[in-house]
Amino acid sequence: MANKNHKGGDESRCSFCGASRNEVKLMFQGANGANICNKCIENGFRIMADNHLVEETQAVSGKPSGAAPITKEDLMKPAEIKAFLDQYVIDQDDAKRYMSVAVYNHYKRLMYAPKENDVEIDKSNIVLVGPTGTGKTLMARTIARLLKVPFTIVDATVLTEAGYVGEDVEGILARLYQAADYNLEQTERGIIFIDEIDKIARKGDNPSITRDVSGEGVQQALLKILEGTIVNVPPQGGRKHPEQKFVQINTRNILFICGGAFDGIEKKIAQRLNTRAVGYGRNNADKIDRNNIMQYVTPQDIKSFGLIPELVGRLPVLTYMQPLGRDALRSILTDPKNAITKQYERLFEMDGVKLTFDEDALEFIVDKAVEFKLGARGLRSICEAVMIDTMFEIPSQNITEFHITRDYAAKKFEKSNGLNYK
Fold first, then answer.
1. 405: which residues sit within 8 A by CB, 6+ positions away?
2. Whether pLDDT at 121 is above 70
3. Of 26, 108, 138, 349, which one has the greatest count of Cβ atoms within 10 A?
4. CA dist., res. 226 & res. 118, Å (int)
């Protein structure tokens, strides 16, 4: 800003409209002495918007042009959402149906602002219970990709109460705000996946009499943001920037998906089912599938595991992830759009090499994943062990094809584990 114009007068005047410095709020001076007032800047922006140049400029810069609300035409039906999930997540049909309905209802609710004296629909946060490596994170990430909304993953184990070493609960919203490229409207329509939610279960069934800053204390801190409230959030997150101005984020329309392995919850379920199998319900005991007891999980079970009742009540949609069997693991290797073998084939293709796998080699990888009980994540780690030497050597060699056999896979896997292959 300047106090004098480029001709050396007593006051600056806008080079466009001629307004004096005293007639406008702001006056900007360029390097050549020309001036422009805030009114002319606003008029210019309005003209650009009328000619749809604002959106084009933001698209070129990579910044969002604003959070376009999801319309009725854009929102896919539950069956369509599940069909999309089927392309990336193998099996887990029950979980995908629950997720599809919950997500559909959540974003349908956003499209219809409640009228006066109308029924106000609460949001349906979700909790996924299941062993590690069964696709909880993948399902949440795929949903976010489908809806084209901001998405962030937070590990519950790093969260602590405010004032203690660790990450505040408000930091979760800061991450989503950053994922939305600091667009507030998009942030308030995003999805947050809180992983390892079971790790903040309180110790024992009785309320804590001592401070539990990473367990029950975090659960208490999560209550408000899960239900819906306005939170003051540091845009840059953390406590390293005390000078930053806070942003107010309304969490009422942010969908929270929580996932956890809940190791040992099967015992809680079994205890409850055995209790019900006494007396009038005893005849139903024979109908219980003991090999898949996780399907009978209820909010009562996760409460018994250590989540406080108030938190359980704010996670109304509860579904389970089945342990992946051998057939499912085999499908994960080759069938989904983002299948592990397809990813390696694409990496080799970038080097001009065609990569192929023997069926027996794939069976070996699945066998090891089943043996070590590693789930889908185990498939990737075993593949890395098998492929590491190949990925190191191939770029330096002048070859166009490479084939992975069972013997080669076994030899490389045993070598990576410090064993002698025979």
1. 358, 360, 361
2. yes
3. 138
4. 23
The reported pTM is 0.71
DSSP state string for 353-420:
-EEEE-HHHHHHHHHHHHHHT-HHHHHHHHHHHHHHHHHHHGGGS--SEEEE-HHHHHHHHHHHTT--
C-alpha span between 50 and 32 (Å, rounded): 29
| Rounded Cα gap, residues 92 and 85, in angstroms | 10
Contact call for residues 89 and 135 (beta carbons, < 8 A): yes
Q: What are the C-alpha distances in Å from 3 to residues 378, 401, 408?
A: 68, 72, 78
* Backbone Cα Rg of the chain: 28
Asked if residues 218 and 161 have their Cβ atoms less than 8 Å apart, the reply is: yes
- The Cα 38–Cα 53 span in angstroms is 19
Give a three-class secondary structure readout of 33-86.
CCEEEHHHHHHHHHHHHHCCHHHHHHHHHCCCCCCCCCCCCCCCCHHHHHHHHH
- The partner residues of 194 in beta bridges, in order of sequence, read 154, 258
Amino acid letter, 302: I
Query: Could you write out the DSSP letters of every residue in 212-256?
Result: -TTTHHHHHHHHHHHH--EEEE-TT-SSS-TTSPPEEEE-TT-EE
CB atoms inside a 10 Å sphere around CB 296: 16
What's the burial of 25, exposed, middle or buried (CB within 10 Å: 0-12/13-18/19+)?
exposed
Buried b or exposed e, range 393-420, using 16+ CB within 10 angstroms: ebeeeeeeebebebebbbbbbeebeeee
Order of strands, sheet of 151-155, starting from the edge strand that comes earlier in the sequence? 151-155, 191-195, 255-260, 126-129, 317-320
Structure tokens that stand for 233 in this block: 């959030």
Mean pLDDT of all residues in 90-106: 91
Do 212 and 202 touch, CB atoms closer than 8 A? yes
| 3-state SS, one letter per residue, for 301-342 | HHHHHCCCHHHHHCCCEEEECCCCCHHHHHHHHHCCCCCHHH
Tell me, what's the pLDDT at 52?
Answer: 46
* pLDDT tens per residue across span 9-50: 435 788 888 888 888 878 887 767 788 888 888 777 767 655
**Tokens, residue 7:** 């001709």
- What are the tens digits of pLDDT across the range 292-311? 788 899 999 999 999 999 99
CA distance 101 to 76: 10
Q: If pLDDT is split at 50, 70 and 90, which confidence band does 162 have?
A: low
Of the chain, the percentage scoring pLDDT greater than 90 comes to 39
Please say if the pLDDT value at position 330 is more than 90.
Answer: yes
Max intra-chain CA distance, the chain: 99
Based on the number of CB atoms within 10 Å of its own CB, is 314 exposed (0-12), middle (13-18) or buried (19 or more)? Answer: buried
